[in-house]
Automatic annotation (TrEMBL):
GO terms for MF: oxidoreductase activity, acting on a sulfur group of donors, disulfide as acceptor
Superkingdom: Eukaryota
UniProt xrefs under InterPro entries: Interferon-induced_GILT (IPR004911)
Membership in a protein family: Belongs to the GILT family.
Protein's recorded name: GILT-like protein F37H8.5 isoform X1
Amino acid sequence: MNKLTVNIILTIVLFFLIWQTFTYHMVLEKKCQNINEQFKLNMKQLHVTLLYESLCPDTRNFMHQLGPVYKEFQDYIDILLVPFGKAQSERNGAIFHCQHGPAECKGNRLQGCVINSTANQAAQVKFVVCQMLAPDYSRIDQCANEAGLLTDVVQCLSSETGTKLQLQAELVTKKYSPSFIPTIVYNGVFDQQLQDHSLRDFRGTVCYLLRQRNLLPSSSTICQ
């Protein structure tokens, strides 16, 4: 192999390495940009955690507020739905005891499975509100269809997945030790005054917090 051939090969190899490095940095820069955009988006949202129970009358009353308020403010709200309430587990989830009996435990588990089936918060809220406001709490398939969700959660309900989801919900709930269900938590901090206002006027409380934390664009008229 003569010197010219070696130089050509080295040039090609060098060009290939430079191209790979450039491509890698372009991909990395794009990923970082996406992460930064998502971070900025999350920072511009009000984080709401709703601790509730599937057969709780007070939760059911709150659903009349949650549905329309979330629909109106979904661009400004990041919501976490936690169906557990005042339930308790035994033996690492082998048994659950719920405030309104075994049917509520089944309902909590069902809602946990459906919520876990999608990352679309609008669909999660739509399903939960629909199912909670059904006359007999049983319109599972209809509510899932209206929310655009699959209803095949049988495997989740009867498997370890359903148990793990309830144990996770228990951990989140115990973090706040709620004395009343539903409990509404904003940005990870429970505030009794905000809780009381939320039960009476969820929309007004959301608007107050969005304004207080400068989470609304100056041109927004949504809270007027």
